Amino acid sequence: MSTTPRRFPTLLVALIGVAVIALAVFFARGPRAPAPGPVPSEGAAAADAAAPASGAGRTIAHAQGSTVVAEHPKQVVVFDLAALDTLDALGVDVQGVAGEYFPGQLAKYADAKKYPRYGTLFEPDYEALHAARPDLVITGGRSSARYTKLAAMVPTIDQTTDDAHFLDTVVGNTQRLATVFGKEEQARTLVEALNQSIATLKGTTASRGKGLIVLTSGGRMSAYGPGSRFGVLHDTFGIPPAAPSLKASLHGEAVGSEFILETNPDWLFVIDRDAAIGEGGGAQRLLDNELVHQTTAWKQGQVVYLEPANTYLIGGGIQSLRRLMEQISDVYAKPRQPSAP
User: Fold this and answer.
1) What is the value of pTM for the model shown?
2) 224 against 32, higher pLDDT
3) Is the pLDDT of residue 20 over 70?
4) Number of Cβ atoms within 10 Å of the Cβ of 298
5) Which letter does DSSP use for residue 294 in this model?
6) Pairing between β-strand 65-70 and β-strand 76-78 as defined by DSSP bridges
7) 31 three-state secondary structure
8) Burial 79-90 (b: 16+ CB within 10 A, else e)
9) Which of 36, 315, 321, 332 suits 24 as a labelling partner, its CA being 20 to 30 A distant?
């Protein structure tokens, strides 16, 4: 018979001791925290922080949907010159703007100390906006493509105009901003005055001959008709179109002096894009040629150079539309003065 002692009880005691120690450590530390999830991006964090609490404002419908906007927002950043033009007419001050060029009635916004810059009309400075945390951002036109990204950061409304319903859009945009900022009475006065002036103008333009709208840029020309970017002259001011079949496209139809002669408008309305963006201007040199000289518009002294920045850059603001209407009214009120041959 073997005389080797049994070791099983000793080993069992040791294992039980280790288990007791492990349980003591577990209960002393407490349960483990769950593994951390993905860290939200800066944009998502900004969107969560900027989202207004339920009932903290009103829902405003606009060109790209609807947005909950705080009652009478104070800190406002504007990425659209037409919207800035309308806000200025309503007497609403803004915190910041986009771009560096503020022509005509918007000249005061060139003061960068008073009106900080938050990027350009085409590319916002998202970091600056995140730091500023405005109550409201306004886009439109050139900046409308950035609406979605901006709306993820801060309450944003879009004021893009509809060329096919230009006057209705301008009035609607004015009334929307008036609602946001409590300026309904000011808007009513502006709209009533504009409608009355347009009605008077239409009584004159309808019987004074046909018009053609051309935009010049870099030595080239494009023509615009009803329903187009500059079709307000036909659709709202009542000027009969000399070329009614022109397609309503953003960039117009490329034309030359031969087209102008063939169309032979009684009125030739010219928008000099180069002058509008501060790069000189060559519209008058471009049109001063033998073919254009043969048109009725040239012979009757009815070649009208529209205020370039107001028409090309700010078009869609209620002040801009009023200024354009006043310019057209002035030229129709003047006696005909034939241009030099």
Assistant:
1) 0.81
2) 224
3) no
4) 24
5) T
6) unpaired
7) coil
8) bbbbbbbbbbbb
9) 36
User: Which amino acid is present at 209?
Assistant: G
**Which of 27-41, 209-223, 264-278 shows the lowest mean pLDDT across its residues?**
27-41
CA distance 277 to 270: 15
At 267, give phi and psi (nearest 5°).
-130, 135
Q: If you search the block for the tokens 């069992």, which residue do you land on?
A: 12
The set of residues, in sequence order, having a beta carbon less than 8 Å from that of 155 and lying 6+ positions away, is 50, 52, 57, 67, 68, 69, 70, 73, 135, 136, 137
- The answer to whether the CB of 98 falls within 8 A of the CB of 79 is yes
Q: How far apart are CA 123 and CA 320, in angstroms?
A: 24
- pLDDT-based confidence at residue 339 (cuts at 50, 70, 90): low
pLDDT for res 338: 56
pLDDT digits (tens, 9 = 90+) for 58-91: 999 999 999 999 998 999 999 999 999 999 999 9
Q: Burial, 228: exposed, middle or buried (Cβ in 10 Å; 0-12, 13-18, 19+)? A: buried
Predicted local confidence at residue 306, as pLDDT:
98
Query: DSSP character for 3?
Result: -
Beta-carbon contacts of residue 192 (< 8 Å; ≥ 6 apart): none
| Element of type H or E holding 69 | strand 65-70
Q: Is 299 exposed, middle or buried (0-12, 13-18, 19+ CB in 10 A)?
A: middle
Angle at 250 between CA 257 and CA 308, to 5 degrees: 65
Q: Look at residue 48 and tell me whether its pLDDT is greater than 90.
A: no
In the DSSP assignment, the letter for residue 317 is B
Confidence of residue 36 (pLDDT cuts 50, 70, 90): very low
Who's near 185: CB < 8 A, 6+ residues apart?
none
Mean pLDDT of 125-146: 96
Look up residue 107 and give its DSSP letter.
G
Distance between terminal CA atoms of the chain? 140
